[in-house]
Amino acid sequence: MDAGGDRLLHSSNIAVIREVYDSEYSPQCFSMELEKALESRCSIIVIEPSQLGDETARWITFGNYLHKTAVISGMTSIVSGFAWPDSFTPQAPLSIFSLLCTGLYTASWQFDHCVKYQVERDPRKLARLPILGALTSASPVVLVRKDDLHRKLLHCTVSLLSASLCIYRLYRTIK
Fold first, then answer.
1. In the predicted model, is pLDDT for residue 13 greater than 60?
2. Is residue 6 part of a domain?
């Protein structure tokens, strides 16, 4: 950040992690710049270094898959509970899997700043970025800050509801 501050932050709340190798910047500095940008809650983060961008995109994508898996398995557990009221076979494993995915997501991403960001892949939206013409990388990773409260509430609610229904059915069966 010694080079005038434009290396990291821009006035439009856009952070750019530039792929510049000089005497004071090394690959470790790229991840520190990314962490600063995430902590400062920039609305858009552009990552030029390909390795850092790919790792960050994979981490966010894995979190998205965990979230979706928790929701889909929880919803399937709920539906299967009503479709086969006399059998725990499909409902219980799906409910447990949903809870495991929700627990892993919560434990791994709850305090991670990346959870607030999504990888922008839409070329039309990317073309509207004001900084895109000044980039040195041909394929930067663009992160857009999104509110994740609804998605957290969704997967927690679905997982807990599926587990509650499963426990209730087990209680009624034992009773």
1. yes
2. no
Q: Which residue has the higher pLDDT, 133 or 53?
A: 53
**Count of structural domains within the chain:** 1
3-state secondary structure 74-106: HHHHHHHHHHCCCCCCCHHHHHHHHHHHHHHHH
User: How does pLDDT run across 18-55, given as a tens digit for each residue?
Assistant: 876 655 656 668 888 899 999 889 999 999 888 899 99
pTM above 0.90, yes or no: no
Range of the domain at 74: 14-174
